[in-house]
Amino acid sequence: MNIAQIETALQKILKPFNKESFIYDLLLAYGQPKASIKRLQEGGLNLSKTAGEIIWKKKLFFKPVEGEDLHVLIDTIKADDKVTKHDPRFIIVTDFQTLLAIDRKTSDTLDIPILEIAKHFDFFLPWAGMEKAQHQNENPADVKAAERMAKLYDEIKKDNPTKTPEEVHNLNVFLSRLLFCFFAEDTGIFEKVQFTNAISSHTQTDGSDLQAYLDKLFVVMNTENSKRKNLPHYLDAFPYVNGGLFRNKHQAPAFTRRSRQALIDSGQLEWKDINPDIFGSMIQAVITPEHRGGLGMHYTSVPNIMKVIEPLFLNELNEAFESAKGNNKALNQLLQRIWNIKLFDPACGSGNFLIIAYKELRRLEMRIFKALSSLAFSNINLGNFYGIELDDFAHEIATLSLWLAEHQMNQEFFKEFGRTKPALPLKETGNIVQGNATRVDWEKVCPKIEGDEIYILGNPPYYGARVQDSEQKTDVRNAYNNEKIHKDADYISCWFIQAAEFIENANSRFAFVSTNSICQGDHVAILWPRIFKKSVEIFFAYEAFKWSNNAKDEAGVTCIIVGLRNIQSLPKFIYKNQLKIQVSNINGYLANAKNIIVEKRADPISPRPKMVMGSQARDGGFLILSPLEKEQIESMYPAASVLFRKLVGSEEFINGIERWCIWISDNDLKIAESIPPIQTRIKSVYQFRISSKAKTTNGYSAIPHKFAQRAHKNTGSIIIPAVSSERRDYIPFGFMDEKTIISNRAFTIHEQAPYIFAFISSKLHMVWVKATAGRLETRINYSSGICYNNFPMPMLSDNQKESLAVFVFKILEERESHSEKTLAQLYDPDKMPPGLKEAHHQLDLAVERCYRSKPFESDEERLEYLFKLYEQMIEEEKTKGTLFEVEKRPTKKKK
DNA sequence: TATCCGACAGGAA
DNA sequence: TTCCTGTCGGATA
């Protein structure tokens, strides 16, 4: 059973409506088996002893009554043990006028005239095996409307294939006009159900004349009443709408019986309940087929939009209002200011940010009117709202949604003040432009006139350097003026660069929701030097949070919010763990510290063994084996033993997982080729590499028996897992023997130097790593170029090196005494064994003594110290090209 | 030859 | 479903 069938069945119940069979018809409509219904009807399945009542285990409690208070009744039933022990999913009571129902699983309730049951078909969908849990926090009206539009869209599309961009645009415009009409007839812009009724009574049921009818109707809506001639009443009854929505001639699509019916069905929804802010995104997802799987996965939730709007401008306006209260002159000035504010979303989608911002401004305006006892009308002009959107349909919807928002706010205004402007004709909102924001001149979209107060906001698209298509690559290259550095930049950085340019030296600020990548690791050095070259600063930031909205498939990404303004001596804030913390500066890492940027470097900043990335198989998985696979081959071909090596990456090392790889030295190639299962795997590697789209990988098809990149040396080594949970106080490192292959998800130092182990294991290093490393989501993503090579280390005497070894061995000893546990368990911050913790603490102190005699008191102090050292080392390298000796530095300062 | 990261990915609870 | 935590390999220097 699909939704459409259920709806049709429900409509059939109503005509003619039969009290006796109602409940059975209802169950049948949701696809319950006829045989069960029959048994229920005959009493076999009915667990209730009371006449008239029906209890169907797990499914239903039903009680028809006359003249009783239904609400009281249903509350009693809800609490009745005799009912609940059968665990019915739904409780339904009705006097055949009103129907009340409770969904006992979700606690949703239904309270409707029984004849409207078809409208609320979704309530009982769990009977048909369809749960509504995924929409629980979503406004059901939005979801329903989006689903209905999807159905209508599919029907129309069937008979009106769109091939050219013009045809697509045509259909997009048509749909936004329809949406407007549906909304208008439910919210008092038109007469109640005027549009839907007109269609159902004035067009043929086979849909044949609907196209012509709509074309005529839309012309009427674009014609002022005074200019209309000889129109039949059913057309003339429609008001003049204008506002650009019906201005251009776009032919309506052709209709069939089915698509006409789908249109009428859509009209029958209660459109007045929809939220244009979120609804727009859902509709957009429905219409853009590639997004349909993840219905609205990229729309920004209202709470997150508020996180942008409030610090960007709303808090300030609210404060201004509070302090102006009682001072009419100041209040009027504030009104003037609000009326002139421009809002600009250069990636506006279906307009969520603009709509929420618009609504908030209208609400503030209402509060001011109240404080002034003003009799004025709203003067916040949709013309001050600007947007750029790549997707044509979204951009149509954005314009439409702004109108809907305006109308909803006018209604709110009417409730409060008893007066409002007429809804029609619509005013111009010509400012949502379709285009690629990275290529459009923003000032052409949102003109910057002397004195204008402009806020730029939004949630531009994020694409890492490896997932951009060639167009996007070009966009990025242009944003970075062709500088080489652009090649690792995220797509969103284009918006940051353009916005920074836009606001510089203007009365303007911007804030975006962004991927957290741009404020981490490698990317900081790519983007932020360019931004800070201008006279702008970060004035607020939200620390990383996981992306979430109410869509079925949320996008998998971790976000931040960053706000920038021209340099000013006003407070700055970091929002962290629900706290708002005032800080003196916010740097490119979103930390309260100087604008230092740690660039990756190929070699260590002071003498120390090189750290390199492990060996990368790039093999399609064919060179890598589970212990079982390895044993199977070995048991048949004992000679294969020499070809296997243990393979250790982050996961294997931290979680103690055993994994093997085929590691064939040139001498062993003959053996390998003599073993059929190995031979097969080598062939598979060849296939994988030759068919890869990466040119470098194709090249490695010449050596299919080997890892593509072989960092391994036959020496003992230190392993540095690349990715590690941020919850741990220490990233666990370890020594590896010369046989073990370290994979590309870990780094390695080809030397078992205890003093290096000591330094990288120290708290000082951890603090440094947490500050500078890239992240996988919020995990630590260690890198040699950033974390290790830049880490300021003092020069050490041999004695010092040796004395550090003692502390390292103590740590290994402590780990060994819990050898049954994995490192993940040992380094779980909540369960770390005291002995291990103490061993690490002792090592921390020993390492810190190598830097200075005075102990550190906090991680902040450690970090500040390290950054100062880092700066000195960089400075020294630049000026003298010599290496820095840490021991002497602090004493020099004292003198 | 060596990297750094992913509007993620995949197993555990 | 929610929580937790790290693979694999592309693209480019």
Automatic annotation (TrEMBL):
Highest taxon above the source species: Bacteria
Domain MmeI-like helicase spacer: 169-246
EC number: 2.1.1.72
Entry-linked SUPFAM superfamilies: S-adenosyl-L-methionine-dependent methyltransferases (SSF53335)
GO biological process, one term: methylation
Pfam families assigned to the protein according to its UniProt record, in alphabetical order: MmeI_C (PF20467), MmeI_hel (PF20465), MmeI_Mtase (PF20473), MmeI_N (PF20464), MmeI_TRD (PF20466)
Coiled-coil residue windows: none
Reactions performed catalytically: a 2'-deoxyadenosine in DNA + S-adenosyl-L-methionine = an N(6)-methyl-2'-deoxyadenosine in DNA + S-adenosyl-L-homocysteine + H(+)
Domain MmeI-like target recognition, chain residue ranges per copy: 593-796
Keyword hit for Membrane: no
UniProt xrefs under InterPro entries: MmeI_C (IPR046818), MmeI_hel (IPR046819), MmeI_Mtase (IPR046816), MmeI_N (IPR046817), MmeI_TRD (IPR046820), N4_N6_ade-DNA_methylase (IPR050953), SAM-dependent_MTases_sf (IPR029063)
Start and end residues of each MmeI-like N-terminal domain: 1-159
Domain MmeI-like C-terminal residue range list: 797-874
UniProt domain MmeI-like DNA-methyltransferase: residue ranges: 322-575
Alphabetized GO MF terms: methyltransferase activity
UniProtKB keywords: Methyltransferase, Transferase
Protein name: site-specific DNA-methyltransferase (adenine-specific)
